[in-house]
Amino acid sequence: MILDLHTHSIKSDDGRAKVPNYCQWIRAREIPIDGFVLTEHRQFDAESDYSSLAAKFDLCILKASEVETEYGHVLVFGVTDALLSAFDFGDIHLPLKRVVEACAAHGAVPVPCHPGRKRVGMQAHVGEFGVPEGIRIVEIYNGGSRDQEDQIAQTMANELGYLGIGGSDAHIVSHIGRCATRFPGPIGNTAELVEALRAEDFEALTFRT
Amino acid sequence: MTINQISDVEFGEELPVFTPDTSLDNVRRFATAAGWAGPRFTDHEAARAEGLPGALVPGIMSQGFLAAMIHRWAPESRIEKVDTVFRAPVIVDQPYTISGVVTDIDEETETVEIDLTVNNEAGETRVFGTATVRIATPA
Lengths: 209, 139
Known about the structure:
The structure holds 2 protein chains of 2 kinds.
Chain A lengths: L1 E6 L11 H10 L6 E7 L9 H7 L2 E10 L2 E6 L3 H6 L9 H11 L2 E4 L10 H7 L7 E6 L6 H12 L2 E5 L11 E4 L7 H9 L4 E4 L3
Parallel strand pairs in A: 1-2, 2-3, 6-7
Antiparallel strand pairs in A: 1-8, 3-4, 4-5, 8-9
Chain B lengths: L23 H11 L4 H4 L1 H6 L9 H15 L4 E9 L9 E11 L4 E10 L4 E10 L5
Antiparallel strand pairs in B: 1-4, 2-3, 3-4
């Protein structure tokens, strides 16, 4: 099963894509993914229910978050009410240690995204703050990467022994599915996604040309 | 093919790719006319002295390129909104391509939504956004 693990909708301040249009686009263009995860900036979109849309288009649509730490941006998979109470998702100065510890306590998985990017990527901050504890996975393919950002991410992942995922980081409809992650088995809900990430059996994919 | 009415438009339709003129002469002309003729837009060396990679194409000029592409595709359309996110600078004298694709059609309001992307030669997105365009049926 292939999921785009990093997407944004109009719920994010810089997102311009409506979720129904993502679905329509994936099917019309035969994008080779089976679903996507909405990772809205600095929030968890608890209110939106995409189940009927998912059923209509036969796609898996899950929700996660992208928070901001001193190491840059971090995807958080497995957001629960308890995790939402553990720290302020809207805080742009979250300590990564706190995010990692809260994820461990509440069964979530933190994944630094676009880690090769200046300022908002983890690699730019390792020299100053050291290698963070508790990170097992980073995003090594990001659909919005420029210059050598993905290469920097892959080199860092190799050197530090991290596993890699892929995500498009789509903010507009036509960018979805540029990068994704292949899992060996089916995933139908957030708990199964977290379980699959913890199983550490997945492969980052890029479809960028 | 140019678009004259909403029924001509298909979901996923790609607008003809537009190659903007980002030459220093053209940018200087635009910047002067727009009252933005600061050295960061008109002089590579001055821009580099500010820590920039070169003279910048003004954001409003990039938006103008986007509008020009839309009007070449649908000359009688009315652009209701161009909403851009600038991810990286667009540099003068460097080649770019602008692409657009229809990602939503509302026949009731006779509007379409278009994804817009400005890519450099390496295929990296410098600017992205959306446009809402009204394509009224001729009376």
